[in-house]
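Shipment paperwork, digital attachment
Item: protein structure file
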Amino acid sequence: MKQDFLEIFQKIAPDLMGTVKERYLLLRHISDAEPVGRRTLAGISGLSERVVRAHVDVLRRSGIVRFTTMGIALEPEGKAMMPDLLECFLRLNRLDEMQQYIRQKLRLKEVCIVPGNCDSDKTAKDELSRKGALLLADLLDGVKTVAISGGSTMAGVAATLPENASGVAVVPARGGIGNRVEFQANVIAAQIASKANGTYHMLHIPDGLSESTLRVMLRSDMQTKKIVAMAKTAEVILFGIGRSDIMADRRELTVSERKKLADGGALGEALGSYCNVSGEVVYATNNVGISLTELQHNLHVIAVAGGSSKAKAIIAVMRACHTGTLVTDEAAASEIAKLI
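Attachment content:
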């Protein structure tokens, strides 16, 4: 009946629903940046200072936020309300229906949508990472091994993961890519292991080595061989998704390799595999670790990616993946729903 009530309220008081949405978004920004001033809130929310002042005055009188010398902060009651407010927000924007639609069309186990657009909203990106972290946290007590890819989104997941005592082993899903140390899978694996009171193992293999070199390394280095085996049999796989053109630049692919991507219609990349809109892998980089097409053998698969600019990339990768949970944002989900 809750959803029925919301639909009725939307019809008879659409202006009220708009107010609810604005106040929820302000509370979300306060939660992420507290204590925060009204001028800053106006800047990150896109609302005028006058509107922000009116909303937060009501929220203060209701005991949801408090004013301090440093800025506006959530009261304990406000913090406790946030999960229920998120559910209401999803229903108000029919995002719960969109979750089910995308899940069915892409044949996934679950789809989770957070508000906003990661392309332009830092709060949305933070919430995307936090949602991925909470999904991972819920699984840690029941598993022995987690494999995670690199990238800024995975770094965000590691940063927002709650501390626990699961003692899980964490390994990188594949070898390294790029020059940003903080975004390397090895570093992210170590951060997650630290928060889980667990252990971590590193793969000291860069992306793009020849197949013959990789074969020699695997034959001669038993430690690397062991870590690769752990990654392939990990109960939980967590990875990000990138646009094929951006990832081609990041990996500094050759002209002939880029031609393969263009000829194959590549749109998205994950775990070294470049996929087209049908989910076909048109090119894969040489590396050790998990392949996108092997994920059906892992118990829990979680892909985390957002931003409207990544919509086509997400479709391509999740069609190739054929399984798992997708965590994305409102903007990407809206584009995905139009395209599938």
